Amino acid sequence: MSNKWSSTRVQGIKFSEIREVVTKVEAAKKQGISNTNFSIGRPDFDTPDHIKAAAKDALDRGMVHYTASPGILPLREALCTRLEKDFQLTADPDEIIFSSGATEAIYIALQAILEPGDEVVVPEPMYVYYTGWSFLGGARCVTIPLAETDDFLLTADRLKEFITDKTKVVILNSPNNPTGQVYRREDLEKIAELAIARDFLVISDDIYNHQVFDDAAYCPIAGFPGMKERTIIIGSFSKSYAMDGWRIGYLVAPLPIVSDAMKMHQHIVSCPNTFVQFGAQAALEGPQDCVYEMADEFDRRRKLVISCLDQIGLPCVRPRGAFYAFPSIRKYGMTAKAFSDLLLSEARVAVVPGSAFGDAGEGHIRIAYSTSYEEIEQGMERIGEAVRNL
Ligand code: PLP
Fold first, then answer.
1. Which residues pair with 231 in a beta bridge?
2. Ligand 1 atom with the shortest distance to the CA of 248
3. Which of 4, 64, 131, 281 has its CA 20 to 30 A from that of 318?
4. Residue range 64-110, pLDDT digits in tens
5. How many CB atoms lie under 10 A from the CB of residue 40?
6. Which protein residue has the closest C-alpha to ligand 1 atom 12?
7. Which atom of ligand 1 is least distant from the CA of 102?
């Protein structure tokens, strides 16, 4: 909706189509129509009790004032320990900024490094905001269409075709939203060599790093020789600890980039929410069983979704990470949007059209299996019925 006060900046970005579907589901609910919701990509689990208790305790102890801009030191230290333990990544507390979710972290990172004329290269299908974030940084988002025939995987050879002298940064997201694919170690190693040879930065959006299945493994690109100096690692508590509503995430980057990103961070939020930081510290320092129990449950649901899709006859590259399946609906000759609308009206199942994740997502739908096993059974059953009637 444009108005005479609207800036060209804001006119150049779009509303999230994921949120559009969520709004439709909520509107239907108000009218008494309940839908199975496969649209929202967030764990349906509650935040583990020990994390909540730490945040409550912080409130009770009067932790209600601003903290240091990058977040409290014990939290940054706890993250260094966790990164080392879980992923053999070394970081210094000064290289970390805690942010309002990964959302703010990616935004400030791009604002810190982009200049007009720069190119941001992103494999597509891709998370909905990368294009807008690049635009807000005055840069152009150059997308690499990935095909399901290549299992939606990025190789260094494919990436090479899109690198120019204007390439400032490549954004990688593995495990991937929306495809559920996990990049192979050997590909990442070659991509790292390319980054060094062609002198570009990498933003490694690693927020699904605890949700990896089958024989897939999360491989942080920052771990390859020479890469820590040119990688901005993006992390979040939203998916691993079921803390999406807490709005806490982080970036880990080389010091000069952290210093620039910090200026942006101060201009936007001053510092992360104080009592939330204590919850986040408890998440990092406390027992990690909850993380792996949730991931195991996602795996159980993933197998269910795969077997239902097979039965229905919707071809799908086997998802091996995050909590999304991205089946093809091409054989029905409909746009992803029309197909998703049909599922909502005929099957009362909300999914996100693949086109929401860029042109390369057309012909697919994203199913987020972040709802209960029973709901998935029922929802997939109704998708099957709707598809049989086509
Ligand atoms: N990056 C990806 C790939 C995502 O899927 C999401 C959220 O769904 C985000 C970033 C933002 O996460 P956060 O909740 O930490 O802001």
1. 202
2. 15
3. 131
4. 999 999 999 999 999 999 999 999 999 999 999 999 999 999 999 99
5. 18
6. 102
7. 15
Beta bridge partner(s), residue 94: none
Q: Which amino acid is it at 336?
A: A
Q: Find out whether the beta carbon of 35 lies less than 6 Å from any atom of ligand 1.
A: no
Q: Find all residues with CB under 8 Å of 59, minimum gap 6, and list them.
A: 275
Strands 365-368 and 119-124, bridge-based pairing: unpaired
Look up residue 312 and give its amino acid: I
- Whether 326 and 178 have beta carbons less than 8 Å apart is answered as yes
- The percent of residues above 90 in pLDDT, for the chain, comes to 93
Q: Higher-confidence residue: 1 or 36?
A: 36
Helix ranges restricted to H, the chain = 8-11, 17-30, 49-60, 73-87, 101-113, 130-136, 156-160, 185-198, 255-268, 274-285, 289-312, 336-342, 373-388
Give the mutation target among 172, 218, 236 for probing the ligand 1 site: most ligand atoms within 8 A of CB.
236
292 residue type, one letter: Y
Distance separating alpha carbons of residues 246 and 166, to the nearest angstrom: 37
Residue 96 sits at φ, ψ, to 5 deg, of -120, 140
Nearest residue (by CA) to ligand 1, atom 8, is 41
Provide the phi-psi class of 54: left if phi over 0, else alpha when psi is between -120 and 50, else beta.
alpha
**For residue 109, with 0-12 CB atoms within 10 Å meaning exposed, 13-18 middle and 19 or more buried, which class applies?**
buried
Partners of residue 98 on adjacent β-strands: 250
**Residue 103 CA: which ligand 1 atom is closest?**
16
Helix (H) or strand (E) segment spanning residue 165: none
Query: CB 256: neighbour CB atoms within 10 A?
Result: 10
